[in-house]
Task: inverse folding
């Protein structure tokens, strides 16, 4: 038994998603968008960005993605919040139509996310020059960044691997100018050089301790603490 479906002819276990006044190509693109959002929710717990959707489904512009997302929202297949660019939720209607797990639908909205800006790179090795990029944003679960002006840095190097911080990870940083012994901090050690290390104040100087036995500690008369590590994000492909 089959159903007439604007996304194509489907078997009975995939009931029709009824989309009106669109071409077959547009309907197929919408289906791919819904399935990609569902896959990213399963893998990461947060929805993809508009640019990620565009790349995944072969759209040349983010405006085209916004157009399809708006249409899907009007048709009841997803919900969006204007204040958060990644705040996309699949509705129970979509979950039933595509056979998605219940955890992808609004019944479990504990997984709220904040959109944080990646402001640059941070050395997990020797100090590197600090520079603001402010070009990339990543959705971060509220559990990792519950409040305040948290931001993200991309890690370069392997000196903190024993603290489970690897090259390519994103670290969630809470801005602050003080630190206690043992805190992992963003420390400015020269005018334009910062590093990510565990902080210790001892014998009238500061020890910045790597979390990798291959790296020696770094000693400074003083450093400027710019923020404290409160979370780590790693994408697993």
Result:
């Amino acid at each position: 038994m089959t159903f007439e479906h604007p996304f194509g002819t489907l078997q009975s276990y995939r009931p029709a998603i009824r989309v009106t006044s669109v071409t077959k190509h547009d309907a197929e693109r919408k289906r791919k968008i819904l399935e990609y959002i569902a896959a990213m929710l399963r893998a990461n717990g947060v929805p993809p960005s508009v640019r990620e959707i565009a790349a995944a489904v072969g759209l040349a512009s983010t405006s085209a993605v916004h157009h399809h997302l708006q249409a899907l929202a009007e048709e009841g297949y997803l919900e969006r919040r204007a204040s958060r660019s990644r705040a996309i939720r699949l509705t129970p209607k979509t979950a039933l139509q595509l056979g998605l797990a219940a955890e992808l639908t609004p019944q479990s909205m504990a997984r709220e996310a904040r959109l944080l800006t990646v402001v640059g790179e941070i050395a997990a090795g020797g100090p590197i020059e600090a520079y603001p990029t402010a070009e990339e944003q990543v959705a971060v679960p509220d559990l990792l960044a519950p409040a305040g002006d948290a931001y993200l840095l991309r890690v370069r190097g392997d000196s903190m691997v024993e603290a489970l911080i690897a090259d390519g990870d994103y670290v969630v940083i809470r801005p602050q100018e003080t630190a206690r012994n043992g805190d992992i901090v963003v420390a400015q050690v020269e005018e334009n050089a910062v590093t990510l290390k565990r902080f210790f104040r001892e014998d009238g100087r500061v020890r910045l301790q790597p979390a990798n036995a291959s790296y020696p500690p770094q000693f400074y008369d003083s450093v400027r603490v710019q923020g404290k590590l409160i979370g780590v994000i790693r994408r697993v492909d």
